[in-house]
Amino acid sequence: MHGKDVIADAFGRVHGVVHGVVEGLTPMQLAFPIDAEANTIGWLVWHLTRIQDDHVTDVAGTEQAWTSDGWADRFDLPFDRHATGYGHTSTDVAAVRADAELLLGYLDAVHERTMAYLEKVTDDDLDRIVDRHWNPPVTLGVRLVSVVSDDLQHAGQAAFVKGVVQRRG
């Protein structure tokens, strides 16, 4: 097994967890905040997908699905088109209103692009420096693991919120 295969498996797990969380939920459930400062399922899924889209396309040297495939227009959010959710307030979180089909459509498009990119990656590529703003500089392998880690944390948060939302009816 190669390093890229482990990373591809991890991204596949993110994809599966998110589908399991979102499928069957109503727009109201996806937008329900469990308290005034909490992230909603819809925002968490949008954010984790935006991060994957942003970070993987950055290292791949390609355009984001968000802008090049029209997802930004479909979501029609009141943010800068390059926003990924970092620094969002509870008002920003509440502005992310999307149904399951839209959220999963964007996730699926980004997942497909990620898997296509990983097909081309070699073990040697994983050692390539992709960000010199950190000490030590960040390699491709570390960046991809970082995205997986962030995505899985948010997917787990979304699963937790789903449990609370379903218990509250």
Description of the structure:
This protein has 169 residues and is mainly alpha-helical. It has a single domain, classed as Four Helix Bundle (Hemerythrin (Met), subunit A), CATH 1.20.120.450. It has eight helices and two strands, in the order αααααααββα. It has helices at 3-22, 27-30, 41-60, 65-68, 71-75, 90-95, 100-120, 140-168; strands at residues 129-131, 138-139. Strand 1 and strand 2 (138-139) form a beta hairpin. Helix 1 (3-22) packs parallel to helix 8, helix 3 runs parallel beside helix 7 and helix 3 packs antiparallel against helix 8. The longest helix is centred in the last third of the chain and has 29 residues, at 140-168.
